[in-house]
Amino acid sequence: MRLDLYQAETAQIAGEQSSLLDEARQKLQAGEKLSRLEENGVLHALQVLIENAIGKAKQILKAKGESVPVSAYDALAALARAGVMSTEDLPAWNAAIGLRNRIVHEYMNIDVSRVLELVYVEQYRFVVEFLLAPISDK
User: Fold this and answer.
1) Which of 64, 117, 129, 138 is least surrounded by Cβ atoms within 10 Å, i.e. has the fewest?
2) For all residues of the chain together, what is the average pLDDT?
């Protein structure tokens, strides 16, 4: 896929999912309790955002002619080594990838109240910003 088309798709998905998370955040900040359906929507939106970011990281590496690791953790670390992001950002990315892994693989061990706290303080915003930032193939 052409890099410009990939970026457009990535940005569209980021916009849709962050809009859902923003809506949930507004409800939480207003003191409202989310329904179980809404809580599941939050989990899904976070999963999609983080998977989208992992895919974008791999596309950036590919565009730069770097080897593309299978591991999401390794892909983000490779972006830091390539100077695309700061190494100081890696702990937040590792936590996001860990959350995505838990949502997908350990769904019976998710503390939804902790996830909702992350949404309440917009902890997902750095993922959205990464997804909306233009891809440079240089």
Assistant:
1) 138
2) 93
